[in-house]
């Protein structure tokens, strides 16, 4: 059964369960404090929002998203599917991102892709379903599962802030690689998503800067 982090109380319950299960997390929690649940809208708009922010500063991503969401009312897969590529480009999207969003829109329109059902899938299976889509990398897939679907076991193994937090919090000699992150997180199944929230909060506490989407 998939656990969902729909509310702040869901996250708090999950974090307390993790600390009870893995005593190494207790000092991490004492420094991090209780993380705040981050949620964004699910579906095409939520994934498109994340795609728009790939490899951009927070300010640049917000500006592009603001122009996009203002240009289309409603902003949905059908609007993007029918929009001219040059119009999307004038709003600030790169050719690669236009291609990604157009492909997503066509797949959803043809009912070959249902982003919402991923919330009920095994986290690893859902991750692989997303990264099989052109232009959707591991980080984008995991952020969508965590923040848009509230998937309780999604694990952002490639996130540098989570990696750095684990290195410091668990006293590792080096920051773990994406491959090494999978076995490290095994003790936290099926609550790896809650663990990620905790590690982001810890990273913010020790580094004094955000390590994850701020909104």
From TrEMBL:
GO MF terms, alphabetically ordered: alkylated DNA binding; DNA-3-methyladenine glycosylase activity; DNA-7-methylguanine glycosylase activity
Taxonomic source organism: Bradyrhizobium nanningense
Keyword annotations: DNA damage, DNA repair, Glycosidase, Hydrolase
Enzyme Commission number: 3.2.2.21
Name assigned to this protein: DNA-3-methyladenine glycosylase II
Annotated GO CC locations: cytoplasm; protein-DNA complex
PANTHER family recorded: DNA-3-METHYLADENINE GLYCOSYLASE (PTHR43003), DNA-3-METHYLADENINE GLYCOSYLASE 2 (PTHR43003:SF13)
InterPro entries, sorted: Alkylbase_DNA_Glycosylase/TA (IPR051912), DNA_glycosylase (IPR011257), HhH-GPD_domain (IPR003265)
């Amino acid at each position: 059964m998939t656990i969902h982090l729909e509310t702040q109380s869901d996250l708090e319950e999950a974090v307390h369960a993790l600390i009870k299960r893995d005593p190494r997390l207790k000092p991490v929690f004492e420094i991090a404090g209780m993380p705040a649940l981050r949620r964004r809208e699910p579906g095409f708009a939520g994934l498109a929002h994340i795609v728009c922010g790939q490899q951009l500063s927070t300010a640049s991503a917000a500006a592009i998203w603001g122009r996009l969401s203002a240009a289309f009312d409603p902003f949905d897969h059908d609007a993007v599917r029918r929009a001219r590529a040059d119009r999307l480009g004038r709003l600030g999207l790169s050719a690669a991102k236009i291609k990604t969003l157009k492909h997503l829109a066509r797949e959803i329109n043809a009912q070959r892709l249902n982003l919402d059902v991923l919330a009920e899938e095994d986290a690893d299976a859902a991750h692989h379903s997303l990264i099989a889509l052109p232009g959707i990398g591991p980080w984008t897939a995991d952020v969508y599962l965590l923040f848009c679907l509230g998937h309780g076991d999604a694990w952002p193994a490639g996130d540098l802030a989570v990696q750095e937090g684990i290195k410091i919090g668990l006293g590792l000699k080096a920051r773990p690689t994406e491959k090494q992150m999978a076995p490290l997180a095994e003790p936290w199944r099926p609550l790896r998503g809650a663990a990620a929230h905790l590690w982001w909060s810890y990273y913010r506490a020790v580094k004094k800067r955000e390590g994850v989407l701020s909104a």
